[in-house]
Design brief:
With 323 residues, the chain is of the alpha/beta class. 39% of the residues lie in helices and 21% in strands. Strand 7 and strand 8 form a beta hairpin. The termini are close together.
Length: 323
Amino acid sequence: MHGEASERLAVIDLGSNSFRMVLFAARGEHWERERELSAAVRIGEGLAASGRLSPEGVERGLATLEQFAAACEQAGLAGEQVDAVATSAIRDAANGAEFLALALERTGIRARVLSREQEARYGYLAAVHTTTLTDGYVLDLGGGSLQLVRVASRIARESGSWRLGAVRMTERFLAGPGPAKHAQCRALQAHVARKLERAPWFAPGAERLVGLGGTVRNLANAAERAAGLPAEEVQGFVLQRAALTELIERLAALPAARRSEVPGIKPARADIVLAGALAIEEAMRRGELEALEVTGAGLREGVFFERRLFSNPHPASLGAAAA
């Protein structure tokens, strides 16, 4: 899209696995993702065992935020034009506040820590504003946590958040470089099933499930490749549970370092994607859902929609990502 942007907003997501920044730009009544930056920081690595963010993870996080701060400065963004949010790992870590203080000191970026409820809400907002979902569920899987939201008449009715993220589940159940054993996979899924029992509202009967998050997108890419489709756009792709099960079998048979040999699986996510896939499959089994509709949007878009659309009597539209 051409023309000068009348307004810009940078949304930064300090996730347990990845740090991401999206620069949204307004041109008239239209908004678009003008620029996206991301890095696999793995700030949640080792958190389950130690309760703290590791020194290595902290340094990776700070270095990435310095890059984001430079990009914001280059775009002329500061203050309220930069909205940074932290999720599961930083929320749960004993030294999470210390990390955010260091980040503010070194980069000038002030991040707010989302509660579990806020994190689930942003996923819901991203899903309902980028799909036609009216009734069903939203599933958002990150590195540290999994969120589920029940949607009825496009309104969030119930939500839940559990420490079932891909990084956490990998470290707890699938540690080690070799192929995953069947007993390991079953133990992981039994754990997920026990946690989801705490959400009686997540029950069979819904026909629609919308999924978001890096693991969901990566699995959709792999499923597209397996079906002989070009893995270029995951928005609207429907991942069948049977196809997910086949992917899980392929991934489990490979050592962690070689899972990126499965077409569509990114090397930076190869060691954690299996745990994420197992968690998603178990959630689908519990809800008796045969398919998951993928949206390319995420928490960042949820923050955007809350910041811009709900305060605007004439909601803007969100365009495709810039090339």
